[in-house]
Batch of 2 targets.
Target 1
Amino acid sequence: MNIALIGFMGSGKTTIGKKLARQLGWTFLDSDGLIQQKENCSIPEIFAQKGEVYFRECEKSVLTEVAELKKVVLATGGGLPIGEDNWKILRQSFFTVYLKAHFDELFLRITGDPIRPLLQKYPTKNQLKELYLSRVDWYEKAHVIIDTSQKKLERIIGEIIERARPFYTNQN
Ligand code: S3P
């Protein structure tokens, strides 16, 4: 089985995921990276040239592929867990971890980032906060919710391993 890290942009999915995978001796993958490889195109280019709907189809297809693998830590794009279709796959093949943080903290981390096309679609802090709020219920479906606010990386990883252990030791 696998672990999927979910959460809003800036929640640390990639940083935490890489380190978590190293500690577990698992493979690290990230959905944006897989999409970029397949499409041979950056995320902003995919959004600009093919549109968000196309990007979401790519997300679903890489999620389906990763679900077939084992011992993968997957860092998901912030919009991947939105919708029942992707949740069905997540629930079936992944132990899901929501990396929760205060919106203000997330906003500080992502603001001005040119590789996040949604910052153009939601250009104000309020618009972005509405997007965040509209997603929280989906994120909270995760098996565990880890509050990352003011925690060191090591502690966050320790908590994830502790909570996920019963899941992956039962499945192997
Ligand atoms: C998105 C988040 C991004 C990336 C894309 C769309 C979103 O990933 O998938 O720009 O819808 O929240 P990160 O969460 O890694 O920034």
Target 2
Amino acid sequence: MKLTFRWYGEKDSIPLEFIKQIPNMSGVVTAVYDTPVGQIWELEKIKRLKELCEQANLEMEVIESVPVHEDIKLGKPSRDQWIANYAQTIRNLGKVGVRCICYNFMPVFDWLRTDLKRSNPDGSNSLAYTHDILMKLNPKNLHLPGWDESYTSEELYHLLEEYKDITHEQLFDNLIYFLNGIMPACDETGIRMAIHPDDPPWDMFGLPRIITGIDSYARLVKAVPNPHNGFTFCTGSLGAGRKNNLPQMIKEYSDRIFFVHLRQIQYTNEMDFIEAGHMTKTGSLDIFAIVKALVDYGFDGYVRPDHGRNIWGEDGKPGYGLYDRALGAAYLNGLFEAIEKLRNA
Ligand code: DNO
């Protein structure tokens, strides 16, 4: 595996040299953040990011995310132009050696939490999700923590109206149409597309969500067998779905898992959770069993420690402070080393 760390570009308060100081860190996972969704990422901007990474002795082989325009998800006639743009962005990323693109196909909202700073008994704080609180919110006038509010209430209203008649089936067909449209660019560049699961993995505000567990994996691979079509295996997102057996999913899809987000959650209710420190003992997911499955089934892609808590007085970007993610990286290094050595002994 290659250990990586998410870096939010030049505006990130965490310097690349700090990231490089984390043991075994091979590179960063980043993105061009100042190009509107759907527009082609200019080669110059991509090269600038790459140069910064190179100066810090870090690779830039993974992009998270190239966002998908809502018209593509909605299956509007304009989607062909947006898909052509996306394919050109893939080609531009291929020119600087990018190997993997993480993206998602969640309508309107990306990940959702109801609390960005839930206090823990040890004085740290974490992201948390309480289903009842979310259900009581009015999606058309949403002010959620972490939600970037890039839509005005009016825009959001119209967008949600447009989704009213989109079923799970249609959304899935639109995903397939999108993937078929970009696979030629992936074939040319060798870039692998790694879809992120829906987070949390259930419908929100009546919007369909379609990448939620092993059945979605089976369906997606069957519909687009091209080897560049695969997954970002996010343990926190998939793990929030109580029925998902994560080691089993790895066993069945290890050849399609290109990128892994390793994160721990603690269940607090049937659908509720708090994000916890990465170690198995500190939450509900068996991180050891997950890493063991990755090693046992020959995973050789990218890994990053996902969301950390705020610890040691840090007030980091929600989920993306330095300290707890660095502790997570150290823990994951230890797990991988131990499991790999025992396996080869
Ligand atoms: C949250 C992230 C997601 C992820 C996107 C991928 O912390 O895991 O925002 O980057 O869903 O497209």
